[in-house]
Write a structure and sequence with these properties.
heterodimer; A: alpha+beta; Penicillin-binding protein 2a (Domain 2); Beta-lactamase; 2 domains; B: mainly alpha; 15 helices
């Protein structure tokens, strides 16, 4: 059988042709599947291949004061990012560019992390590039493929530390937040509000990022801005007008005793609008722009005086004497007393209750007082008895009812709750059912014991006193809360009587040194006992007394006594109600030192205790 | 003035393929960020001119002279291959291998391409001399040696793709001279064994099947044993061979099996190639408009993956036309082989068809993920002088054979 025979050859040629057709068909089917059936999928992929969406950061909304003065604004800045096809290439590019940008190893790591998260977006390197740096980079663009430089608005706080605790600050979104996906429109490098109004109204302020598309090649070199008109312009965030009066705020900040810690709140009682809110010490929110220097951050967050703490809403102090008004209002509401009522035992410097002796701050005693006089002189003995008359369970229930166990509800983040027992169950749990006596009532009645309040809460309570209907609108900086539901439940006459009693405090009582000649100011000082050092001072006041238009509360740590800060508060009131030209105070500002109106610790009664107190003026130290 | 007896259809088909190839190569160079391949089409044009001239010369050489010269050509090819192994250099995407022969720093060619043609010639000379086709494995031995020598030398470079082409040539030629199919299966079985060895199950089934075939076909006992032992041996040394492969070869095989393993590294080529092909759609993005190509997402787009450029820009339609042209060329070559006047010419032309077929199927199949990435050129398309020269010379030989058959008395 010769293989080279036409018949044989034709047979094998047919076989070979068959194989050719078979293979050809297989190839065509494969191409048909990819090019025709799955074409759209691959088309999308090829588009993704070459398009890199680069977010155009939306400018945040402005924050202004009530008169439109800008508290937080945007200024032009430049951010530098890097597009890369792979981590290795990113690393190499960063290595080349690092000296120019002065990037640390940490910055490089951050950029790498951001790249891993969104490999198709520029990894942010610097967000606060100066114009000089940008020009230097532009010159080297050819040798630095993938460099994306774009205008990115920077946040600026023209008033710096003045309104820091109100406005807050912004910072870059963290890894955790990106992972959790709680922030809408999150992307690496997004600025989010971290504190204050920036945080509270972050969603409104943030705006919507725009988007533009860069066409890149396989090496991540950006070739050109993609045509197609697919650029999406960013939308600026909503601007927010606050109720703050920046002039008043500045006056408050300047009046605040230098180097002291504490807070001041100025509020319009009719509306609940915050006119000023200052916490000392303050920080400069501008230091957080463009990424926080870790050193600055640790200095701020670990400083002994916690400048990041907003002492108006994030610090609790024993309410002390200002609390006496709470007890008085409760007792009047329950019809137990009115302003002319006397207590069975006149003040002789102290009150014996079972086996303990509860002293009045005034050793000599106040004598027989009406409620109005007791408020005026802040008599502890009177309020011991009033508390007992009110009874512990009523005291606790009414405090809850008046909102003294809740946050004030101001529109700032991280407000803390006051501490106050909900019921006697608290004492049972803490001391055991038989481990405590009714004597706690005496302490609670004068604002001591298991009670600590924020400034915001106390101001809210005094707003009730200041308003003719005994109600307090929720304090707010931007958006009014729900209409007030809580009420003191006192008649206008009773309220006016309480206010009159508070006017007497300023005119002739514990805060006498703070009187402003042309204004009738009502207020109450307080001295919160502090186990760690000098006492904290309170002063909460309103004016004009007949129909208050402003309530000011202040707490100053280690001020020793509220009357030391009363002049400051009264000057603030005067500044607000009478304008910038200040009427003289009747007494020099800080020279008035009044007796401490906080009751000393009660002492156990031993056979000679009374005699010793009368003889020596102080109990034997235990 | 077309010479008498010139097979114009084959010539036109090759001309069309070369023109389409050059156009695609031109487009492949047009990237957004210019690279060194931008002007490569001009060089290729130069090679085409040179190859056409060489083809014209070869066209004048009678098959008799070729047959006489075959042992010298084959010997030269083997010597060059050995020389390449000793002093060869790498280039381009295969920079780590020794596949180029260079003198004084100038690369002058890839001997492997010459060896392909030389092997076909040698096979043709050997088998044409036999009256009966080989009927036993022992009789196949000389043919296996003729292919085995360049196969091993090329495999050592290492150039997996070209080595596979030698196997394609061997099987095509053996098939054409009428070696029984079952013998071809038995001959090829160790290779299949090698591939299946990575799964114990499939290899076990394969061994059982081979055993049954052996019992049914009843070859000589020694042959049967050799085949069977060859299968077992391949199955056992497969893992050793695998470890002996260069990492890039391992990666290519792995990513052939699953391109998504690491899309940024080994599978990148296949994925980007498929994206290019797929995004081309039915009608393509238009000549010069391919984005995958323009943005350099295609790897080796002027050589290995040039077909992806064509598929992206000209779409499925372009693919059909191109494959049809290749099919036409192969069918024409087969007809020439069938009508050839003498066995040597017939085997020679069919071997050339086998060579081109293997190249086209492997290269085109690779771009779409049907074949492992081996980096062998697409005839008339891929940039590269050596293979272009060989292709044109091979076509010229075929044309000469065709002319002999048409006008037998005008031969030299």
């Amino acid at each position: 059988m010769n293989w080279f025979h036409a018949h044989q050859l034709a047979r094998r040629a047919r076989l070979a042709q068959g194989l050719l057709w078979l293979v050809g068909t297989v190839l065509l089917i494969a191409f048909f599947r990819v090019q025709v059936l799955s074409s759209s999928r691959y088309r999308v992929r090829s588009e993704l291949n070459r398009m890199r969406s680069v977010p155009i950061p939306a400018p945040r909304g402005l924050i202004t004061d009530r008169n439109g003065v800008v508290l937080a604004e945007n200024e032009p800045g430049y951010s530098v990012g890097l597009l890369a096809p792979s981590v290795d290439s990113l690393r190499a590019s960063i290595k080349r560019i690092a000296p120019l940008l002065r990037l640390s190893a940490r910055d490089a790591e951050d950029a790498e992390r951001a790249f891993r998260r969104t490999p198709y977006r520029p990894a942010p390197l610097r967000r606060d590039a100066s114009f000089d740096l940008v020009s230097a980079l532009e010159e080297r663009r050819v040798v630095m493929p993938g460099l994306v430089i774009q205008a990115e608005p920077r946040r600026r706080y023209p008033f710096g530390s003045l309104a820091a605790h109100v406005v807050g600050y912004v910072a870059e979104i963290t890894e955790q937040e990106l992972g959790a996906g709680t922030v809408s429109g999150a992307r690496p490098g997004l600025l989010v509000g971290r504190d204050g109004l920036e945080r509270e109204y972050d969603d409104r302020l943030r705006g919507k990022d725009g988007e533009r598309f860069l066409e890149v090649d396989a090496l991540g070199r950006s070739v050109r801005e993609a045509e197609m008109g697919q650029r999406l312009e960013p939308e600026q965030g909503e601007s927010i007008r606050t109720t703050i009066d920046i002039d008043l705020q500045r006056y408050v900040a300047e009046s605040f005793p230098e180097g002291m810690r504490g807070a001041v709140m100025v509020m319009d009682p009719a509306t609940g609008e915050m006119l000023a809110l200052y916490s000392s010490p303050a920080y400069d929110p501008n230091t957080f722009i463009g990424g926080v220097d870790p050193e600055v951050w640790s200095r701020l967050s670990q400083a002994a005086d916690f400048p990041l703490l907003n002492r108006a809403i994030q610090a609790r102090y024993p309410p002390a004497s200002p609390w006496k008004l709470v007890v008085a209002a409760m007792a009047m509401h329950r019809g137990l007393v009115d302003l002319g009522s006397h207590m069975p035992i006149p003040c002789r410097g102290g009150l014996q209750y079972y086996n303990r002796y509860f002293r009045c701050w005034k050793l000599q005693g106040h004598g027989d007082l009406t409620l109005a006089e007791a408020i005026q002189y802040s008599c502890d003995v009177y309020f011991y008895q009033l508390g007992l008359k009110l009874q512990l369970n009523h005291l606790l229930a009414d405090a809850s009812h008046l909102g003294l166990r809740d946050r004030s509800g101001i529109d700032l983040p991280n407000e803390i709750r006051p501490l106050f027992p909900a019921s006697t169950e608290y004492y049972n749990q803490r001391y055991g059912p038989r481990g405590w006596t009714n004597a706690v009532t005496l302490n609670l009645a004068i604002g001591q014991g298991e009670n600590s309040q924020t400034l915001a809460n106390m101001v809210a309570f005094y707003t009730m006193l200041a308003n003719p209907d005994g109600r307090a609108p929720a304090p707010h900086l931007v958006v009014a809360g729900d209409p007030p539901t809580r009420s003191l439940g006192l008649s206008p006459v009773q309220l006016a009587g309480l206010r009159e009693a508070l006017v007497e405090v300023v005119e002739s009582g514990t805060a006498v040194g703070a009187r402003v000649a042309e204004l009738r100011i009502g207020g109450k000082t307080g001295t919160a006992q502090n186990a760690h050092g000098a006492d904290h001072g309170w002063f909460i006041a309103f004016a004009p007394a007949d129909s208050p238009r402003v309530v000011v509360g202040a707490v100053v740590e280690f001020a020793e006594h509220g009357s030391r800060i009363a002049p400051m508060v009264n000057r603030i009131i005067a500044r607000h109600l009478l304008g910038p030209t200040l009427p003289p105070l009747t007494a020099a500002d800080y020279q008035v030192v009044l007796p401490d109106d906080s009751a000393p610790e009660p002492v156990p009664i031993l056979p000679d205790t009374i005699g010793r107190i009368i003889r020596d003026g102080s109990p034997r130290p235990r | 003035m077309a010479p008498r007896g010139l097979d114009s259809r084959t010539l036109l088909t090759v001309g069309a393929l070369a023109a389409l190839g050059l156009a695609t190569l031109y487009s492949a160079g047009q990237t957004d960020v210019p690279t060194e391949i931008a002007d490569i089409w001009q060089k290729q044009l130069g090679w085409i001119v040179l190859a056409t001239a060489a083809g014209a010369v070869v066209y004048r050489v009678s098959p008799r002279l070729l047959e006489w010269a075959t042992p010298f050509v084959y010997g030269l090819a083997v010597v060059l291959l050995i020389l390449t192994l000793l002093v060869g250099t790498g280039a381009g995407t295969a920079a780590g291998t020794r596949s180029w022969l260079a003198f004084g720093g100038t690369r002058i060619g890839q001997p492997a391409e010459l060896a392909k043609l030389a092997t076909i010639l040698m096979l043709a000379r050997h088998l044409a001399g036999r009256r009966r086709p080989p009927q036993t494995l022992v009789e196949l031995l000389p043919a296996c040696v003729i292919v085995g020598v360049p196969f091993l030398l090329v495999g050592l470079q290492p150039d997996l793709g070209s080595a596979i082409v030698f196997l394609g040539i061997l099987f095509a030629v053996l098939f054409w001279v009428g070696v029984p199919l079952r013998l071809l299966v038995l001959l090829g079985s160790p290779v299949i064994s090698l591939l299946l060895a990575f799964s114990t199950w499939s290899w076990g089934i394969w061994i059982v099947a081979i055993t049954l075939v052996l019992l049914w076909a009843r070859p000589y006992v020694v042959e049967g044993l050799v085949v069977w032992l060859g299968n077992v041996l391949m199955g056992t040394i497969a893992l050793e061979l695998w470890r002996g492969l260069a990492p890039y070869q391992q990666n290519r095989l792995l990513s052939f099996l699953n391109p998504e393993i690491d899309p940024r590294a080994t599978g990148w080529n296949i994925i980007q190639s498929k994206v290019a092909i797929g995004s081309g759609g039915l009608l393509g993005k238009g000549f010069l408009e391919g984005t995958q190509k323009a943005l350099a997402f295609l790897p080796a787009q002027h050589t290995d993956f040039i077909f992806s450029v064509l598929a992206e820009e000209l779409g499925f339609l372009g693919v059909v036309v191109t494959l049809a042209l290749f099919a036409a060329l192969l069918l024409l070559l087969m007809r020439i082989a069938r009508e050839a006047m003498d066995p040597f010419s017939s085997v020679l032309v069919f071997g050339i068809a086998g060579l081109l077929f293997t190249h086209v199927v492997e290269n085109v199949g690779m771009t779409i993920g049907l074949m492992p990435i081996t980096g062998i050129p697409l005839p008339f398309f891929s940039y590269g002088g050596s293979f272009l020269l060989v292709s044109f010379v091979a076509v010229a030989m075929s044309l000469r054979v065709a002319r002999e058959a048409r006008s037998p008395y005008t031969g030299t």
